[in-house]
Amino acid sequence: MSRTARPRQPSFDCPHCRSRAIVRSSAQVTSLVRELDYACTNHRCGHTFVAQLEAVRTIVPSAMPSAAVHLPFGNRNLGPKRLPVPANDDTREPANEDGPSAAQAPDPMSG
Ligand SMILES: [Zn+2]
């Protein structure tokens, strides 16, 4: 049994509904930049969009360097921090509080 190996595509979440988006096509823009056309897999959303993939740092230098390419050296762990996952807490009040308590501590500034 032979299976055709498909290259892995960079994963991207739909900016609107956060579902997985898949690459439909891509094109090289410059030697450092590629544009990818993504389609959201959520059929109720249907968003399609373009993302850019850019080479930004060298980790191990090329054995065949091009004089036209200038990529700074950098640690693979440098770069922007990942965005925190938004908390699912649209409700500002703790779920176990029914409302303002009648038994609040007296205000030390009022007496
Ligand atoms: Zn979507």
Automatic annotation (TrEMBL):
InterPro entries: Znf_Ogr/Delta
Zinc finger Ogr/Delta-type domain ranges (all copies): 14-59
The protein, known as: Transcriptional regulator
Lineage start: Bacteria, Pseudomonadati, Pseudomonadota, Alphaproteobacteria, Sphingomonadales
